[in-house]
Amino acid sequence: MNVGIVIVSHSPLVAEGVADMVRQMVGDEVRLAWCGGDPSGGLGTSVEAIIQAIDRAWSDAGVAVLIDLGGAETNTEMAIEFIGEPRASLIAICNAPIVEGAIMAATEASGGASLAAVVATAEELSPL
User: Fold this and answer.
1) How far is 4 from 128, CA to CA, in rounded Å?
2) Catalytic residue among 7, 9, 10, 57, which?
3) By the number of CB atoms within 10 A of the CB, which of 11, 13, 34, 80 ranks highest?
4) What does the pLDDT look like over 40-49, one tens digit per residue?
5) Full set of structural domains in the chain with CATH
């Protein structure tokens, strides 16, 4: 079972576009979900939508979440808290560029890598 990938963006179009790129490059080897925008259709993120995306991408190997901006990180942290243990310990936020990080994370996950290895690979792209 491969690590799942979730993409969270303030823009639903960005989130969907990144997911489309990942799918085209990695195929269906990895469970993939995305969410973006606030409930009223504007820019933003939603804790509920993030929880739903994590559920769609869920894997017992874990889920790596890629985010675009600070608010997405805050809401993803809240979503992980709401999900609670034991699942919360299998969810990791990647500190990586959303496009490149998602592609690298999904590529690593498609090879059966652990959650820690998937996150480390994505985070190698982050500036120091």
Assistant:
1) 26
2) 10
3) 34
4) 989 999 999 9
5) 4-123 (3.40.50.510)
Distance of alpha carbon 54 from alpha carbon 35, whole angstroms: 10
Q: What DSSP line would sit under 16-65, residue for residue?
A: HHHHHHHHHHHTTSS-EEEEES-TTSSSS--HHHHHHHHHHH--TT-EEE
User: CA dist 93 to 51, 55, 56, Å?
Assistant: 13, 15, 16
User: Which is nearest to 4 in space by CA: 19, 16, 17?
Assistant: 19
Mean pLDDT over the full length of the chain: 95
Structure confidence at residue 41 (pLDDT): 85
pLDDT above 60 (res 128):
no
